[in-house]
Amino acid sequence: MKRASIRIVIAFFGALFALVGALQPASAEPAAALPGNAAPVKMDMAASAATWLMNLNSGKCALSQGGADGQPVVQYQCLNYNDQRWSLVDKGSSRFQLRNANSGKCLLVRGTGNEAPAVQFQCLNYVDQYWEFYNYPGYPGWYWLQNVNSRKCLIVRGGSDGTQLVQFDCAQYIDQAWGRVI
């Protein structure tokens, strides 16, 4: 009788674990966004004039107020101000710096981890200031901006003015899609 009870308990918990396991997502990780053979986009340097850097999800633009090194880069309603204008500086091999038209400083991320903040800093030949553009699938003219140092993508969470841009693992999240808008 004791063995039969143990078998029933084992069968019950085995069925329960199988059911719970079936309800869990196959993977908590997002699908790989950038195929292993994806090549950075060769940006048209004729279009290297200062433009808005607009997020597809929020429809807002990257902004860096003031001229201090370390100034946070945030999103804000797109207005015709130079602190929202960014130009491409070609660094070769499809890598670019993004230079703010107001401050003359470059976009970088501090560190290599997820959620590392995007800030402006004096434009130097530092790899954390280098970005590659990758086509965002299904949205011609929109791109992932991948930091060369961290291999993570620029993202902004939500649609509020003043939200800081950060980096995160590249995935097909619409808040990682950026466009250069005149």
TrEMBL record:
A Pfam family hit: Ricin_B_lectin
Signal sequence range: 1-28
Keyword Signal assigned: yes
GO MF, any single term: carbohydrate binding
Boundaries of every Ricin B lectin domain copy: 51-181
This protein's UniProt keywords: Lectin, Signal
Protein name: Ricin-type beta-trefoil lectin protein
Source species: Lentzea atacamensis
